[in-house]
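Lay summary. Proteins are chains of building blocks that fold into shapes, and those shapes determine what they do. In this project we predict the shape from the chain. Here is one chain we studied, written as its sequence of building blocks.
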Amino acid sequence: MDQMNSILLCIILLILIAVPTALSQERPMAPALLVFGDSIVDTGNNNVLITSVRADFPPYGRDFQGRQPTGRFSNGRMPSDMIASFLRIKDLLPPYRTPDLEDRDLITGVSFASAGTGYDNLTAEIAKVFSMWDQLEMHKEYKRKLVAIAGEATATVIIRESPHVVFSGSNDILATYFFTTLRQKTFDVPSYINYLVDAATDFVKELYSLGARRIVVFGLPPLGCVPMSRTVSGGKNRDCVETYNQATVLFNLELSDRLKQLNVDLSGSRIIYVSIFDIIVDLIQHGPDHGFEETSRGCCGTGEFEASISCNEFSPCTCPESETDKYLFWDSFHPTERAFNIVITAVQSQFLNVFRIQGE
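And here is the predicted shape, written in a compact code that computers can read:
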């Protein structure tokens, strides 16, 4: 059976290599890429929803191909695209809910992510977006479509051998806990972090039950240093908010520990935790060393509070296109394409551990 699966995987990869793309003709590192989470990895799924958490209008996408806003929460490409590219799968990762999705898109992977969501179902309810559990239902539907296209055996191999990337938790901590305070009535910070990590653990277990074996879970950035946090709770100097950063560090530590245990508990799995906290702290503290002249405000509008619908073509003070790369943040939550690229490039070695055999 293992030999047959290996043969199927080779056939899949040969088919992908034969498809003309803008990428190098080197062999793809995986059959597909499947992504779950929030606005950091949403490439346009929220476009089909009636929600204020959207980015399918200018100036979002002003540096994207064709200068088109696609629902990506930045001026250009997102981590989903960049990961697909460095894995030599394809240049752009389409959203699963796009109406013009093609069979080839399904075979090589999609993003199920929904901006505004989190591990806490309340977070998605507030934002009126797809929950993380809705995304699991999309994955089930995706597999049925994949089976119809490629057959049961090939679909199983694609899902088993493809990285399943998860990025979530920011909206839970910032929006649901600190900004709206809705969860503060029930939880203190440590207990809420434990609640989120329990949910993240359940999510990874469910992915495993659906056939995923290579799973990459990203930790969170320093949430107290995003422009919106500085504006809301950073005082007159808009300093980083230490309380938010401490909650983030606690979440990252507990999540990392839990994922290590899952690697032991889930037979045949390769589950990787990817840390980005220190990388982004370095970009903030030493911005000029990396070519960033502004690290506390976004490019869009004043850069202090604008995001989603408040970041639009009528927002005053938006930085000129020629200066976008000088900004670490695009809006008050999301980095610029250049900043995203620096982060993803920095974690490639961590990410590639998902392909290593246990014990190496």
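What the prediction tells us: The first helix runs from residue 2 to 18.
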